[in-house]
Amino acid sequence: MVTETQEEITQLDIEIPKPHSDKQDEFVRCAVLRQVIKAGRRFGKTAGASIKACLAFLGICSECMGEGCVACEFTGKIPPRRVLYAAPTAEQVGKFWFDTVDTLSPGIDIGYFKKDETEHVIEIPRTELRIRAKTAWNANTMRGDYAGLLIMEEYQMMNEDAWEEVGQPMLLDNNGTAVFIFTPPSLKSEGVSKAKDPRHASKMFKKAALDTTGRWKTFHFTSYDNPTLSKDALGEISKDMSADSYRREILAEDDDIEASWLVYGKFNDNLCKIKRFDIPDNWTVFSGHDFGQANPAALFVAQVKLPLPPEAPAYLRYGDYVAFAEYAPGAGFNAEQHRDRFKEVLGNRKLERAVGGNVTTEEEIRQLYRKLGWYIFAPEITRVNLQVDRAMSIVENNQLYVFEDLHELLRQIHDCMWVLDETKKPTNKIKDEARYHLAACLRYLATILVVRQVYGERKAQVWKW
């Protein structure tokens, strides 16, 4: 494809890569202001984003790929746009950067475009036109730029404020276009996500799909929609993946989950997921334990006392609980090693009580720990459903606060679901309960923690033991 300068005519033989399929072509050509792409791994999301970015930067109409249409008054051209591409990992940015540099290299080689490898910027000197690729995962890392085309890839791993506080305002001056690209989060990716709500991208997709104004457009692609990928290779990969990972990462399907299906659906991320601060030595500590040779786990919570440390959220109340440490080392450790790690976590603080394990079948394990000096006792409430009920009460009353770096606990809180009956009504049984070891620690802890209840119109506080 040939592009020209506006003053002295210079021809650049820039070849824009063609989309690999009709489906990728549909996404590349889309010109609506808000575009949400949900796609499986290796579909070609990044390659499509690079094509889209180059077209905008060069002022080529994406709807006709420069051939002329009604949208561009049959010129094939539109006003060039400043482009910002953002992704939460350097690896992802590197993929986009490689494709974009490769496409624009004819202009870079003759000096018409200036390339900065450090900042990942390609620009036309003495203008504000440029493509920039940057690593960003929240509002702070997104600041300091503006764009006519904003592309946010792996959006499910970004904090919501990246768009709400920074991305959206940066498009106001020129009524710019925003493109959100994501793969439904699997259990692996949720552990490193910066999102408050791990499903925020999926919720945006669902809401955008219902739009009737023409302002939003959604696309759903699977890995199988990339014709350049070997179907046999995809089949082999699927054998090594869990059914859930395959459904999310290859088929790009996620659960249309209702809050009532989640055991801890009332957990308030905006309020109760908090930044880490130093737990004072005078805060008493409780520990919950789930036994097992392959997947032992422990959860440590501290009870809030006043005055609060200066870095703690000011809204913490006396008697609230802060989950400050999770322990899930995997197999290969003995009880003495576990005990030593527990003591390291405890530090100089006082362990008020430790609880865990099945009441009838795991007493010998508790006795072993007591002999080693870590006094774990059986839960006072024996029925699992009653344990869960108390844990739900603590969560619903916003008594439990969780440090944002306890990724596995937060993942289990967000994913733990009830088994659904044939009418998709939740039962009282937890789906795949054996997988949720830290959630088990939480329900054990709930049997010894104080539950605050609120009754009546005057909302008098009542403490329930």
Topology, please?
Blueprint: E1 2-3, E2 12-13, H1 22-29, E3 34-39, H2 45-58, E4 83-87, H3 90-109, E5 114-116, E6 121-123, E7 130-135, H4 139-142, E8 149-153, H5 161-170, E9 177-182, H6 187-190, H7 200-209, E10 216-221, H8 231-239, H9 243-250, H10 269-272, E11 273-274, E12 285-290, E13 297-303, E14 321-327, H11 335-346, E15 351-356, H12 363-371, E16 376-377, H13 384-396, E17 400-403, H14 407-415, E18 418-420, E19 426-430, H15 437-446, E20 451-455, E21 460-464
Parallel strand pairs: 3-9, 3-10, 4-7, 4-8, 8-9, 11-17, 12-15, 14-17, 15-16
Antiparallel strand pairs: 1-2, 5-6, 6-7, 12-13, 13-14, 18-19, 20-21
Helix pairs in contact: 1-2, 2-3, 13-15
Protein name: Putative terminase
Organism: viral metagenome
What does this structure look like?
- This protein is α/β, with parallel strands linked by helices and 465 residues long.
- Strand 1 and strand 2 form a beta hairpin.
- The strands form five sheets. The protein has an eight-stranded mixed sheet, with helices on both faces.
- Helix 1 crosses helix 2, helix 2 (45-58) packs parallel to helix 3 and helix 13 (384-396) crosses helix 15.
- The chain is elongated, with a radius of gyration of 27 Å.
- The chain has two domains: 2-250, P-loop containing nucleotide triphosphate hydrolases (Rossmann fold); 269-464, Nucleotidyltransferase, domain 5 (2-Layer Sandwich).
- The chain has 15 helices and 21 strands.
- It has helices at 22-29, 45-58, 90-109, 139-142, 161-170, 187-190, 200-209, 231-239, 243-250, 269-272, 335-346, 363-371, 384-396, 407-415, 437-446; strands spanning 2-3, 12-13, 34-39, 83-87, 114-116, 121-123, 130-135, 149-153, 177-182, 216-221, 273-274, 285-290, 297-303, 321-327, 351-356, 376-377, 400-403, 418-420, 426-430, 451-455, 460-464.
- This is Putative terminase.
- It comes from viral metagenome.
- InterPro entries: P-loop_NTPase (IPR027417).
